[in-house]
Amino acid sequence: MLISNDDRRGLFRLMAGAALCASMVWGGMRFPELMGSAAPSGPLLGAQGHDGTVALHPFAEALKLVIAALIGWLITAVHKRYHRDRPLTRSMEHAQILLCVAGALIMMIIGNNLARAFGIAGVTGIVRFRTPVEDPKDIIILFLLISLGMSVGLGAIAVAGLGAAFLCLFLMLLNRVGEHKPRSFILALSSDGAEFPTGHVQNLFAAYGVEFEPREVSRSNVKYLVTLAPDVPLEYLSDQLLGGGFSGIKSVTWEAPKKSA
User: Fold this and answer.
1) What is the mean pLDDT for each group of 10 consecutive residues in the chain (261 residues)?
2) Which residues make Cβ contacts (< 8 Å) with residue 183, sequence separation at least 6?
3) pTM (2 decimals)?
4) Which numeric CATH code is attached to 183-255?
5) How far is the C-alpha of 59 from the C-alpha of 137, rounded, in Å?
6) Where does CATH 3.30.70.260 sit in the chain?
7) d(CA 15, CA 20)
């Protein structure tokens, strides 16, 4: 039985995510004092002050940021794979990873200082984010990523690992809940040659069970109105259309169809 590249990629991500969560849980339980605020003094972790607090070494704090970034990458990869209603934009993917890092950094800065907490709350209250998030599920994922990042910033690495593993598994289970309605998109394709590779595109549509209707056709650019099942991953279909640069397609763009008035 042959395994497709899509299956190999999904299996690799699953194994990498499981290894990451297991390593975080093991490290957090095996070395609970390494990342905590009550870490012992030492040449790598820093020196103990007169007030009994410990100033952690920047390398230890940087490790927290790396862990938060890895958690953000893992959750974003799973969320993107099971994002049924519309494609996850590149900016949203980056925002999810950065929010997890931001949560860790905020808790590292605050520590046990109440004045810092009020200061950061005041600064964030001044900032106004006007980018609308249409999908309620995306909003909840953002809050969960901030929470996971904060747990990393506090040094609760094992809790963050368990939380990340639970969230990934829960996102997979949620994909089976609710009505699976077909999705419709405007697919814009551009070719890098004089002739558009129509045969390659339509063969992939047939392989994935995609219903299509050409909307705008030129020698090197074609727009299709496509309808596909909710379990067809747009990321993998886009990779197949691009074909590693050898298919003749140079760009793939998914857009939500405009609603008629």
Assistant:
1) 58 84 87 58 44 57 90 90 70 88 86 69 59 75 90 89 92 75 86 83 87 86 87 78 81 78 45
2) 84, 85, 86, 227, 228, 229, 230
3) 0.66
4) 3.30.70.260
5) 35
6) 183-255
7) 9
